[in-house]
Model the fold of this input.
Amino acid sequence: MARVFLSHATEDRRVAGEVHGWLSTDGHEVFLDQDLRDGITVGEQWQDRLYERLRWADAVLCLITAAYVRSVWCAAEVGIAQSRGARLLPLLAEQGVMHPLLGSTQYADYATDHRSSGPARSPDPAWIATSGPATSRDAPTWTPAPTNPDPGRQ
Done:
């Protein structure tokens, strides 16, 4: 299974915790900074730990929300992952939000799928290990990134 760095804005920690649970249950090794077992501990140099985990990860799952787009640290995590050649997996958690650094990357649509699935169902995280959408009916829908007709404007 994959080693996954879960990149998220602090405001989105509840959803990040849900996604962490799904991926862990599916057998992936997942780094979530707030996880009590494997996250950043009290007294630890958090920047060093984030950099080390970004080097460790096979993939970086980006939990895309407006807060994520505003976050300087989230942009740094995307940039580091891109420079390392890590697989970037944008998960759209808020309708209508796209990250400017991930414009050409295929998104999975958690925002739509989660609303329609109800509280008892959770998406099948098998899509993280595939190059396209999973075959499970619970897998997030893959959404093409919108084309920006004027790349100079964000």
